[in-house]
Every structure is written in structure tokens, then in C-alpha cells.
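Incident log, entry 3
Record: DUF302 domain-containing protein (127 residues)
Problem: checksum mismatch between cached and fresh output.
Input:
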Amino acid sequence: MLIRKSTLSQRSTVARLIAALERRELTIFAHIDHAAHARQAELSLPPIDVVIFGNPKAGTGLMAADPRVGLDLPLRMVVWEDAPQLAFVGHHDPRELAGSYELAEQKDTLDRMAELLDSVSLEAAGE
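Fresh output:
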């Protein structure tokens, strides 16, 4: 997992992540607030959010090449709080999908996805 320390709070980092995705006109498929779900079960958990997003124009080509990659798509990022006012943004490197699936001919798409995730994580982390 690639991890970037945020200069912002966990909530601000999540807000900036969502804004960065919307600015790039990516589809946000889901936003999971794990701490909120834990509270509903009367449990305690520090803030942990997962945002699932993508661009069907990129993901569709990968799934057409190897439908099994649908298990790892769409893309996702996690933002968590390790201590008060100490937040991190994490994501997997999409280029690693080529090792698990038959995506050798999709290198350019995977490289663009990696660049996108790096750019979005920088923006979300306040850098």
C-alpha cells in the first residue's frame, strides 16, 4: 500500500479527497464511513473512510482484457486517523494489477491510474 501523511485532519482530508475526485469528474460509487457504522453497532472505532471511485472509460478496458480484475475495480482510497489530528491517505498501486491479471497490454492505462491516484492523494493530503 502507498501511504501519504496528511497535513490536515482526517475529516478535512476526506473532504478534500472527494472534492479532488469531483473536480476530475470521476464517478464516486461509494463512500464508506467505518466509524459511523461501528457507532451504529454501539462500537468504537477511530475515523476510517473508504472512497470507491473510477472512470468507466478506463476500468471497462481493463475488465474487457481480464474480467477477473473486476474484483479489484473500481479504484479505492482509505483515509484514517492514527492519532488526533494525524491522518493518512492510502491506496494500492494499480500497476500491481498487471501481476495478478492478464493486463500486460494495458500498461498505459495502469500508469495513468497510478498517476491519478498519486495526484489525488497529494491534493487530499493538503500538499
